Amino acid sequence: MLxxxxxxxxxxxxxxxxxxxxxxxxxxxxxVLYLKKIPEFNLRIRKIFESTTRIIDSFHPDHLAIEAPFFxxxxxxxxxxxxxxxxxxxxAISRDLSITEYEPSVIKQHITGNGNASKEQVAAILQSIxxxxxxxxxxxxxxxxxxxxxxxxxLTNPIADLQHQLAPKKKKxxxxxxxxSEFITSNPDLVL
Length: 192
Known about the structure:
By secondary structure, the chain is of the alpha/beta class. It contains seven helices and five strands, in the order βββαβαβααααα.
């Protein structure tokens, strides 16, 4: 199976292609789509869609593994990240790929054993597992590889997915309702 891994972003989007047909998975591509120089947000989104479609048409992956947006304090950033993820998923849907979404902590847990690991730790572990020469300039590329490798682990070991689902969940420090309430209070001009 050929897995396309994407770490979505509106400034830098990481992608990788992982061929899992042999005993040792092989990296076919690992790079970033650098979007910072595109001034308009809508043009960035279009670039993500077109580039993802072009990657799919060039490599013909079987599956898209994508990192889920994390819940952050900056709602505007979270919404933009969700749009980047959405257009990458739309490109995959337009080419009939199956899609799996993984939370960042799940990816880090599967790669390093620590759901709070740093990007550098994830990259170092992947480098030792998959034996690539040097780390890319942007860690978004290795994050995309981590998503693809996590997908590979789940597809080859369904018990790992079941163990994750059965693991006790940590309680969040604040309720979502309270966070939205605080957002509305501090941004009354954004509420219709």
